[in-house]
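Make up an example, fold above all:
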Amino acid sequence: MTAITPRVQRMTKTEKRNQLLGMLFISPWLLGFLLFALFPLVASLYYSMTNYDFIRQPQFIGLTNYTRLFTVDPDFWTVMYNTLYYVGFGVPLGIAVAFLIANLLNSNIQGRTFFRSVIYIPSIVPAVCTAMVWLFILNVQYGVINGVLKTLGVPTIPFLSSPELAKPSLILIYVWAQGTAVVIFLAALQDVPRSLYDAALVDGANAWARFWNVTVPMCTPVLLFNFIMGIISAFQDFTLPFVLTGGGPMKSTEFYVVSLYRNAFVQFSIGKASAMAWILFLIILLFSVLLFRSSARWIYYGGEK
């Protein structure tokens, strides 16, 4: 009994021409991906295992940069504490405030369109401009807030010059700039079926019960999305702390990416900075995986938990 071999269908000339045209059309994207994404990714992994300072040739040292960061570097754990403090308090607080503002803007209030536009403005303003505005507002000597306090005879508040207040001040600015999250929540709230609110109202549920048992469960997929995006952006926050405090005072706002930048472009420790970049990637990946794993307990899809 002879085995029947499947007949391979060859491509026609038209199909070959269409495939070639398709590859030509996407070739700019492919070249950009190879040159500006894949190559830097592989190069940074290699440099993280070398001693490299831009001048001399890289010297392969294995995992020494990683072990030094965790065991020898005196600033690494300070930077980790500052960053985790910023992410741990800033992201949940920012998401909660954005969700509450979105619910307020979703109600029938006067000037709703105007308020929606105002809330979104901080998200489209360049980060440097935002930092300069807040520097004017929070400055001890000529800041707006402290100027009012001086007029009232009240002691001034060192928002950015106190090690105890610097991180909370940056968290305040982070929460203020949640316009993108507000817009995403507004889109999610538009998809909540009105019939669910009507049914809850018929059952005698008050406003808080409708919010907690209808609005929140139906918006949990968007809450998960904003949490993940917030964690990614907060771990990589650079412009605001660098412009406002420069990592000070007393390294209280020396966040992870600020320290990475300082190691790479001030101290020219490219190998160490590359190792820090890969550690940051693994940290963000770990937090994202944990969020996805825990989401099965509190995310609702189509009425299922």
User: Anything to note?
Assistant: The radius of gyration is 26 Å. The chain has a mean pLDDT of 90.
